[in-house]
Specification:
Layout lengths: L1 E3 L6 E5 L10 H5 L15 H12 L4 H4 L1 H7 L3 H14 L4 H14 L1 H12 L6 H5 L4 E3 L2 E5 L2 E5 L7 H10 L4 H4 L4 H21 L10 H4 L2 H7 L4
Antiparallel strand pairs: 1-2, 2-3, 4-5
Helix pairs in contact: 2-6, 5-6, 6-7, 9-11, 9-13
């Protein structure tokens, strides 16, 4: 998620991308790439990202924020899990403690234990240990200027920055003169997106493990070179 504080204008990224379980090793997948099933499942990160957002910037309790989802869920395992999380929050002494209790129940408590049991019973790689060590990272956004606007995206652990590169390429063309939704304008946009996506495929990775040359990819010099017409 990208959050912008209305009072200060500060923008931050709340990283809700789950990591791979410890058992998801290269050696494991050398034995064969599964066509389906739970082996590809990452640590479920969305819940902690939401709790982190509520803790840092919100005023609602988890139960209130989850209310619309509960109305849609009806019965079933997900509804039962949400009910369980709401119950542990209500048992806490105050709002901050309640939000911590929600995260602990999911990542280090009975929900984590149930996920571990289900994963083992169904050939998955996720274990309680993976959930227990999960943390939500808070990051600076990747930024690029486009015609007087500052556009913010997530880091290269997502595909987000490719849009910034595409905008930098498009900036070298007089889109306004081409006319809105004209053939030329659409052609320039599509080709810029294709070029940026090609760079995504080559360069993007988890920056905790690989060096990603984002400064170079988003530079004006590189955009001008990429946008040259043969």
């Amino acid at each position: 998620m990208i959050y912008r504080d209305g009072a200060t204008g500060k923008v931050e990224v709340i990283a809700g991308m789950g990591t791979a379980p410890k058992l998801a090793t290269l050696e494991h997948f050398k034995k064969g790439i599964p066509r389906g099933g739970p082996e590809s499942a990452a640590v479920p990160a969305a819940l902690d990202a939401i709790v982190t957002l509520l803790s840092r910037h919100g005023s609602l309790a988890f139960a209130a924020a989850a209310g619309p989802a509960m109305e849609l869920l009806g019965a079933g395992k997900l509804a039962a899990t949400m009910t369980q999380l709401i119950a542990v929050e209500k048992a806490a002494s105050d709002r901050p403690a309640g939000l911590r209790a929600v995260a602990d129940c999911f990542y280090r408590g009975p929900v984590a234990a149930a996920l571990d049991r289900w994963s083992q019973a169904n050939g998955g790689l996720l274990r309680a240990e993976d959930l227990a060590v999960h943390v939500t990272r808070i990051e600076e956004p990747v930024k690029a200027d486009y015609r007087g606007f500052t556009v913010c995206k997530w880091g290269p652990w997502t595909q987000g920055p490719y849009l910034l590169e595409a905008l930098r390429i498009i900036e070298g063309y007089d889109i306004k003169a081409m006319g809105r939704n004209s053939t030329d304008a659409v052609h320039v946009a599509v080709e810029a997106l294709k070029l940026a996506l090609a760079d995504r495929d080559v360069f993007y990775a988890d920056p905790l493990f690989e060096k990603v040359p984002l400064d170079a990819l988003l530079s004006g010099e590189y955009a001008a070179m990429r946008g040259e017409v043969d």
